[in-house]
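Journal club prep, shared notes

We agreed each person brings one worked example of a sequence with its structure written out as tokens. Mine is Large ribosomal subunit protein mL43. I'm keeping it raw so we can talk through how to read the token line rather than staring at a rendered picture. Sequence first:
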Amino acid sequence: MSNKVLFLKSGFPRAPPGLGVGRYVCQLQRVTLKFCKSNGSSRGIRDFLERDLVDYAKQNSGVVVYVKPRRHRSPVICAEYLNGERQWMNVSNYSREDIVKWMELLRTQFHDGTQLRLRKFWHTEYPSIQGTWTPFTFRDPSHNLTKFPNKELGAAVKLEPTATEQLVELFKAQQMSEKSEQDTKIQRSAAEGSV
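Then the structure, token by token:
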């Protein structure tokens, strides 16, 4: 097992305030594309700048795009979000298609959540005074002393029939009554015809 998680930032799972309550607000605010004009590892990002950058800027008018050429350095995408988080990504030797996919991912995600070590899988601002719920919270304490396997506890729980089952039973009863009425009519007509 890797000890990589020891060096990650830790925090609680959270969503940006108000996201999805009224209207969608893009969390990505600023993207900086750093590249070298002559280095071969920057070819994919240069192709992205030549072919796709103008369309990306038109489609995402709320995102500010900075282009920063640097000599003899590997290409980097730096994304800044509304909550102040920054995501830095080395895109050395990436193709243009890969850059397009990564730019779309950076635009649609809230921040770099994969780089956050979760302290707990749940978090609340108002913790319960009763403690957390478990499947054994409201169980009978006598079950703690029961020897298993137990036929009584292992038996299937008999639940009341569902609404669908009740409707099926009513339909079958209606069909049976209609069939019995038809049978009586046939018997009467046969009895009248024989007389």
